[in-house]
Amino acid sequence: MATVEGLIKIKTSKLISFSEQQLLDCSTNGGNQGCKGGWMMNAFDYICQNQGITSEESYPYQQMQETCDTQINKVATISGYQMVPKNGEEALLKAVKNQPVSIALEGHGQDFQFYNGGVFKGDLEILSPMQSPLLDMGQ
């Protein structure tokens, strides 16, 4: 959600906290499993297909998956998204210059699991599934 929140802030100058609960409850197609995890692309697809997402204030986080509320007021939307190719460092740097970028990392290795700060220098693979979601921002 931070990627979409950042993008909307850049485009409108308004910082809106969007509803993670709406994604937990409603974005269940294509492999998303509520509190058990999911794919960021499916969340983006849901926002596009649903023609928007509501605010955290209107649909607050409940710490569990509930029934999808389809009668909510949508406060923002995205028209689509693009994938940066795996190991596409130049494409990632170009994308980060324009807007926040969602990335996912393979977080099963011990180097990553025991990382506690500073510049990470271990082996890491950038993946599509939301194993360890991060937000990459730049200027």
TrEMBL record:
Entry keyword Transmembrane helix: no
Organism expressing this protein natively: Gossypium lobatum
GO molecular function: cysteine-type peptidase activity
Keywords assigned: Disulfide bond, Hydrolase, Protease, Thiol protease
Chain ranges of the Peptidase C1A papain C-terminal domain: 1-134
UniProt name for this protein: Peptidase C1A papain C-terminal domain-containing protein
PANTHER family attached to this UniProt entry: CYSTEINE PROTEASE FAMILY C1-RELATED
Pfam families with a match to the protein in the record: Peptidase_C1
Family affiliation: Belongs to the peptidase C1 family.
GO biological process per UniProt: proteolysis
